[in-house]
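HUMAN: Forgive my ignorance: could you write out one protein's sequence and backbone structure tokens?

ASSISTANT:
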Amino acid sequence: MTDAILVSQDQGVLTLSFNRPDKKNAITDAMYGVLADSLIRAEADPAVRVVLFRSENEAFTAGNDLADFAAQNASGDTSRAMAEERNVTRFLKALARADKPLVAAVKGVAVGVGTTMLLHCDLVYVASDARLSTPFVNLALVPEAASSWLMPARIGHARAYAMFALGEVVSGEEAARIGLANRALPAAGVDEAALSAARQICTRPMGALKITKRLMRDADRIAGLMELEGQHFSDQLKTAEAAEAFAAFAQRRAPDFSKVA
């Protein structure tokens, strides 16, 4: 287990806290492993009634740790990936198949998966000044976590495309207004509001909660779309576009896609 994800359980609420402040909680493979294992355990543990995602510092998460991500893909060793699923894939599948309620408390930045994972949460509380973004195309990549369907379904095609293709940032206040979050409030009150909601859910009948969630979500379609997105994502990583995007990231410069076919 890594201290970059803190796991605690109290009165039916399993809390998963991002805790890597020096990197704005950017998620590494090891962190994805803890998140995936925790969600899988939560589904099987009758003592867990709700899962709460939050952060220990001013950022929710800056998304994938690009240095860690680039290092994995630059190694050229695909044998391990073929032998077993990557932890990020395990985490996304666990989100897709989660029956128990998921709650999120979001402060600061929520980049990439930091935003798309919220589409799988049943209740989301955000700081009014939080900044949500999904800049996949900026890295020559494509949406993940079934967000290519869930995001337009939630906020409309035009707004979703602007977030994906232009990398437009949505404030917490705007996120609540357009339906990405339940409520926006001052950052100091986000954790309390999310925990209060999680504890309220704990008092509800779990059987009815699970059935309600299954009726509201097409888990099979979500899982299937994740697989399709994942294939496109992997294919894009092999392109000259992605090579330029990651080189630009490493060199701290703007990418120049005009020289890429």
